[in-house]
């Protein structure tokens, strides 16, 4: 898809806000709808925040084809895309493996969350409160983690568009 740089930047901004909005929706679902998060849910929240920050930063990167700014943009695209791919993997793992397990204690997700210390710093947003099997919820007949997967795919696609967006003129 051939996008002008200004359109790609706007799309990055909107996608970044959507990523952050998904964390807000998860927070609402947890505290208002009593949908308690599992370790893989929390890991995806963290990844949405990181990918959102990367996309918003990509919206601010100058539109040049050569030099340090262009290299910086490509590195930022690669990092943002890598974190989005990690989100895809986390959502798939949650759907295919973790949601079918009675316990998801001490998985990679638990180690990342504990290692970052976010569960201790901001427990209302990052504390694990359910097992993966107990946290399994459908929204319009589709498992919650598959909605997450779809958003991560969209975010990775938007980041990729910023790699090669053409400059105006």
Automatic annotation (TrEMBL):
A molecular function GO annotation: protein-disulfide reductase activity
Localization (cell): Cell membrane
Listed InterPro entries: DiS_bond_form_DsbB/BdbC, DsbB, DsbB-like_sf
One GO process term, biological-process aspect: protein folding
UniProt signal peptide: none
Pfam family, one: DsbB
Residue intervals passing through the bilayer: 42-62, 74-93, 146-165
UniProt keyword annotations, A-Z: Cell membrane, Membrane, Transmembrane, Transmembrane helix
Bilayer topology term: Multi-pass membrane protein
GO cellular component term, pick one: plasma membrane
SUPFAM superfamilies, alphabetized: DsbB-like
Domain of life: Bacteria
Protein name listed in UniProt: Thiol:disulfide interchange protein DsbB
């Amino acid at each position: 898809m051939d996008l002008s740089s200004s359109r790609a930047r706007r799309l990055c901004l909107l996608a970044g806000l959507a990523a952050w909005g998904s964390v807000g929706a998860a927070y609402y679902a947890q505290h208002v709808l009593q949908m308690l998060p599992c370790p893989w849910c929390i890991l995806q929240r963290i990844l949405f925040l990181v990918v959102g920050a990367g996309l918003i930063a990509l919206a601010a990167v100058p539109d040049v084809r050569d030099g340090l700014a262009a290299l910086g943009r490509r590195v930022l695209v690669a990092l943002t895309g890598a974190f989005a791919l990690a989100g895809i993997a986390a959502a798939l793992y949650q759907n295919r493996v973790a949601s079918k397990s009675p316990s998801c204690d001490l998985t990679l997700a638990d180690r990342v969350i504990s290692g970052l210390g976010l569960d201790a710093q901001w427990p209302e947003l990052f504390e694990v409160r359910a097992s993966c099997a107990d946290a399994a919820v459908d929204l319009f007949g589709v498992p919650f983690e598959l909605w997450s997967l779809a958003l991560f795919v969209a975010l990775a696609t938007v980041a990729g568009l910023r790699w090669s967006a053409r400059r105006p003129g």
